[in-house]
Amino acid sequence: MINYSLTPVVSASPPPSVVAQPGDNVTFHCTDVTGAPGHVGWFKQDNGSEPLCIASMYSSEPTVQHHNGFQPSHMEMFISHRNIFLQITEVDEADSGVYFCGMFDKYIIFTNATVLKVQGMYLIPLVVILGVVTAALPIVFLILVLKIRRDTKRHNTGRSPFHDNMGPIQDPDTLNYAALNFTSKKRKMERRREKELDPHVVYAATR
């Protein structure tokens, strides 16, 4: 394991940024500027703290050593024609930070600082919620339309307030018969009263 005394890195100008989504693969690369075989490595810095060595290797050998808990399955380092690469597989928010390429000589040379910004997962639930609301709106609208139609139909086919006062509607023939019967009875009663009350009737007795 390589032990170096490192100091926090301060950049005179903002380094370039790379924005990634969770699950993306990101690859950084730099060029070995020492021109001689030696140790090279990749470093990560969080919030201005001391850079941590991710992985290192001797430029003329294929063996790579990972440090500080970084896993080779997640961060892979390799060299091709003096180009030094670091590939991060399926990034997440914890991978956000500043990445440096380092060459070890009499001192450490940091080059190619790059800021990695992995966007948070809050965007995914927001999109899901908007999709659910959009899909539910037509259903709610249809339910409201059906309810309005049902209420309107019930109102139009409802019983008239006059119907309750008049009682049940009877057959027309029955009504005509009742009217004739009532008229006949009324005439008989009038004739009977005329016979009982007529003062011009003269009664004669026969012996």
UniProtKB/TrEMBL annotation:
Residues 8-101 form the Ig-like domain. The keyword Glycoprotein applies. Pfam families: V-set. PROSITE patterns: IG_LIKE. CDD domains: IgV. It is found in: Cell membrane. One of its GO terms (biological process) is immune system process. The keyword Disulfide bond applies. This is Ig-like domain-containing protein.
